[in-house]
Task: structure prediction
Amino acid sequence: MLVSHFLSSPGDRPPLRIGLVLDGTTLPRHALEIVRHIKAADFARLELVVHDGGSRHRAPAAWLFDVYKRWDERHEPRGEDPLAPVDGSNELAAVSTIAAWGRDGLSADAERQVRDLRLDVLVDLRSDDESGDLPFLARYGVWRLRHGGGAPNGGGPNAFWEVYEAKPLTRAALVAYGAEGTSGPVCLCECVLSTIQGRSWARNR
Result:
């Protein structure tokens, strides 16, 4: 399997100390794959899970889009949905966990616990788009996968607007926030793929 090539490093430096920021133990299928890859890599060590706890309001999906999604998936079945929620509790069971958010954001006690671990990277896999709400808690900052390139896509599901607007390319970028020596978001890498033409979001995602 090609991905196994990227889970091993010939270097002899200590493994990266990684923390995850999650909504909870239920996460999108593609995010669970990221967790599994981190655990399988010989150059990384998963040290902490920070649970948002869902304390902030998240807008429900629009009913019209929900109707379209059901129609689309009936007519264009394409295997597993990478955005479907799955249970990640087994993968996360052995990792230290803190529930960090209150009404006013990250609690002072949770912030102190995260700092004390001296993490190299925090990987933000939450379903919203608010990585900027996390302070400088890790050496290389907070990393987040942005669909639609390095800037927010204006809301909505990943890989949908490219189909709706008939754009030829679908983009994704890995963006770092709050790394030492930086003053703003930094795009670490970007991938560009041809959009599957037509009316189907299920095919493109």
